[in-house]
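S1.2 Input.
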Amino acid sequence: MGAAHQHDDLEINLVAEGGTMLYLFGGVPVEVGPGSVAAFWAAVPHQLVANSATRVHWVQVPFATLLGWGLSHPLVSHLLSGTPLVSAPSAAVETDPANFVQWAADLASDQPERHRSAMLEVEARVRRLALATLGAPVRQYTGGDPALCHVIPMVRHIAEHFREPLTVADIASAAQLHPNYAMAQFRKVLRTTVGDYLTQYRIAEARRLLVTTDQPINDIASAAGFSSVSRFYAAFTSACGTPPARFRREHRGLGPGLAP
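S1.3 Output.
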C-alpha cells in the first residue's frame, strides 16, 4: 500500500472477492466490503491502510467528465467535499464484476465508441449508487490497530482545521501524543509527512473552490489555508501541473450550480 495521495479523478472501486479494504477519508476510516462499490473524488487525500480483498476492480473518471455528467448539485457537493459513496455488501449487484471488467477493457481501447459506451454505463452506475447511498452513513472501521487509532484523530483534526494555521504540535495534541512520536506514527500509517498531507488537503479545497465559486484566486488561497498567494501558486502548480487560473478556465461551468 502506498502513501496517502490524490489525483484529479472520480475513483470507483468494487471489491469482488475476499475481505475488506480499509480507507482513511478525512480522518474517517471506512471499510469497503465484498460486493461493495465505493465512489469518491480522489483529489481529497485518501489512503488504503489495510486490505484483505483478493480481487478488486478500479475505474477512474476524469474530473472534467464527472462535471460534464450534469449530476445534481447535492451529489456534486457531496463528492467534492471528500465524502465517499459506499454501497453496503448486502446491496451487491450481481452484474458488477463483469461490468467493471468490460469497462476497464473499453476505457483502455483506442476505439472512441467503446470508450463512450463505457462512460455512459459508468455514469449510470454512479447515479444508481447515489440513489441508494447519498446521505446514508458509511461502514466505519471498528478494529483496534494502535498506530491507526493514533493517526485517526490527527487526520480528523487536519480535515476539520486545514483552513487555519496549523503546527505539528497542534496536530499531535489532537491525539494527545508527543509531537515526535505522533509524527512517527503518522508516517508509519500514511507513508507521508504531516506537512505534505496538509498541503494535499489545502490543494483539494482550492480545486473545489475554483470550480464551484467565483471567488478571486487570492481569496481562494486564503480560504484554503495557504499563508501567502505565492505559496499557493507554487504548491497548486506543482500538484496540478497547471496554474489556478488555467485550472478554473478548463473546468468552470461543467456542473450544475457551479460557476458559470
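S1.4 Remarks. DSSP finds eleven helices and five strands in the chain.
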